[in-house]
Please model this.
Amino acid sequence: MTNVIENVAVVICILGVIYLIYYMFHSSLGYGRKKGDLFVTYYTVRFRGVPIPDLKANEKIMAKLNSQQKLDNGYLVESIVNGGSIKQLLKEEYGYTDKELLIQSAKNALQS
Model:
């Protein structure tokens, strides 16, 4: 009986360590949160040498971006799509070039 209890305790400890490792790795991936089954990531969208558009006025863009906060040279947004998709969408909608847009995950933007 003691052997069974020890085995159960070892299994519980191993599962606890696995959970802690998963939690630490998952939370270090970036600033984001779960939205239903999707992971939402925060991005800074910066414009260089061009007027900053009103993204809220564009329904196609608003279908991909949420929770905008205005910055001096752009926006802080949350999205379920990646930064490359956001950049491509802005280029298609407004005709921007790669040099005029800088899209960074919020974690990377805060470190630079």
Summary: The chain has two domains: 1-30, 32-111. The first strand starts at residue 32 and ends at 35. The helical segments are 2-27, 59-62, 83-94, 106-111.
